[in-house]
Design goal:
The complex is a heterodimer of chains A (303) and B (450). By secondary structure, chain A is of the alpha+beta class. Chain A is globular. Chain A is built from ten helices and 13 strands. Chain A has two domains: 58 residues, no CATH class; 204 residues, Alpha-Beta Plaits (2-Layer Sandwich). Chain B has 450 residues and is mostly helical. Chain B is 70% helix and 0% strand. The termini of chain B are close together. The chains are: A alpha+beta (303), B mainly alpha (450). At the A-B interface, strand 4, helix 5, helix 6 and strand 8 of A face helix 7 of B.
Chain lengths: 303, 450
Amino acid sequence: MTATDQNSRRNFLKKGLGIAAVSSAVTALHAFQVDSVEETGEKVKLLSPEGEIVEIDIAYLKPIPEVNISPDESRHGIPGRRFVMVIDLAQCKNLRKCHDACDKMHHCGPEKEFLKVLKMQNNTLATPFWQPTMCFHCDEPPCVKVCPVDATFKREDGIVLIDTDRCIGCRFCMVACPYSARTFDWSEPAFPLELAHQHYSPETSVPAKMGTVSKCDFCPDMVRKGEMPHCVTACPNGVFYFGDENEDAVSNGAETVRLSELLRDRSGYRYMEDMGTRPRVYYLPPVNRAFPFQDDEFTKHKG
Amino acid sequence: MKTKKPVPLPYPTDQIEAISRDLMPKPFGLSGKIWVAVLSVIFLTGLYFYIEQFRFGLGITAMRDYSTWGIYIANFVFFVAISLVGSLVSAILKLSGARLRTPLTRISEMIAVSSIIFAALVIIVDMGRPDRFLNVIFHARIQSPITWDVIVISTYLTISLLLFYLPLIPDLAFMRDRYVGIPAWQKKMYTFLALGWNSHPGQEKILRRAEQILAILIIPVAFGIHTVTSWLFATTLRPGWDSNDFGPYFVSGAFMVGAGGVIAAMYIFRTHYSNWDKYLTDKHFEFMGRLLVLLSLVYLYFNINEYFVPAYKMKGGEAEHLRALFHGRYAPLFWSVQFFGMVLPIIVLMFRRGRKPLPMFIISIFVIVGAWFKRFLIVVPTLSHPYIPMDRLPESWQHYIPTFKEWSITAGTLAGALLIVTLLARFFPAIPIVETIEEAKPDHNFEEIS
């Protein structure tokens, strides 16, 4: 096994990004032969398909086209992956950057949030802590079990998604979810006009539709681009680790660690394990905290 | 078949004319017209707001992400519950050979048919995307209790319609032949619906056989419809719903409110039409009163199981839910419903004087109203107590207080169901004519299943 192999295996997400960049470079070179491009003078270093570092002008780069994932494809998931998240409660000080980024990227209206940051207290003597919650993408999802029309489904890569083109709005899944992770568009959602015409995919959850259920989707659209979910990249404290259980690796953007070691060494647990839902989101207990607990005023729900 | 002595009759036996004059459906009088007008106004107001909801979404209700089911679902459970009366009277009483049931069967089937139709409509009213209703069939998943509910409700509706229609055929033929002075279209309707019935022994044999089969078939379906409805709640992990008792608890409550519904209808018909006290006698009320006590006691038993056992343990989320019911936000409603809707009927109907028509009518209204709010107490408080904390939510999200439009739509469905019963009674005899005439003959043999 070469060093490059090991490296790419460890930084599996960066690998995805690398491939994307190389393919862009190839497209760019191809484009160079057809059109004449005005050089900007700004250069970037890229890895060529032959394995050499090449320096080219950024004018030759083309943005990766948005991939339209078909509804059928979005039901199967990304092959070979088992996505997983670890949330380090010791690092969370309720900055709510995760919440805001998620809201913005999913165009949640004023009455909707996929990600909540909740004030939790295990008992009256214990210090409260902040706990971000979202859809836990359970391996035994009670929501999927009760859906009468297969509008919400569990994928091979572990993600639970909703097809709002099929949802009938009975809200049985919302009742079945013990974590209250699901939200409903009670009225016509308001969003910019260009978004309304955007190609809908269960992977992006936008544009939302009146009378249907939506929730945290684990951002598979970002993963396909080789990027992390919005909450992970938005958090300045590295609270969120996202990764692949098959590769036994999770990353919070700053560091990439072994999932099994992280959970073993820091007593990772799942919220309400006794529900039997087997969540794919783990928590690291709020011990040896980075910040003292502060009950912030600005945390009021928008509503 | 066993032969029994004929029962003494409250009216002369050879008065076919008198019986048919009493029981033939009649045009509305003034009070009937007012009744229909009031119901129509309530129904149309509800329809108006439903059209608004259809266009602008469920946002016009007070339901939000936590209280995601509200009075629509409570109303749905109520309709399913009261529809069980059809199977109670037409099937269970028929098969047990209860002789007094004859004048009660048609009334109870009318209630069953109208309430099951509205149960189905109410579930569509609660849907966020009623336009995609057919997905329930095209994309059906057999794992979902909703799919089971769709199957069992449509089966129950079919059997109930047949149990209403088949015993009606001899009456339709009777009216076709003897009802004079009605519009031609009404005559035509009777002729068409009577399917050429001429009381031929062969026809009667087929009809009796069909009724027998349906009466047996409807019992498991009736248990099924309300058990599956209870599973919409019991299959979730929520406090207050996560119970193994829910099926029998719901079924027993349904029979109780069903009996209450028949009593109320009996009283209204008896006081509204002249001479109907000859057919819906004090004996019938006495009989239904005893039945209602029995059904209420069974329901009381399940209530004790449902509330006392978890209250003894006071486990986590369950405790929070029970505190809200016993001495919290929902306590006034909870104790009123338990007392006026269950304990009081048992006490009053224990006494002979309580089993007279008027006190029974009042009690039956208590039972029906109590049953509706009991469904509210089953559906709503549970959702106000999710496992994750509900703090940092706007006040309107924490407590579910139905909007006027929501109440109006709900009232519209209740008025609609009453309107169907009223219109059925306007065109079809609410007490079987032919059967009553048969039973009035001195040599009539009451049939029983042997």
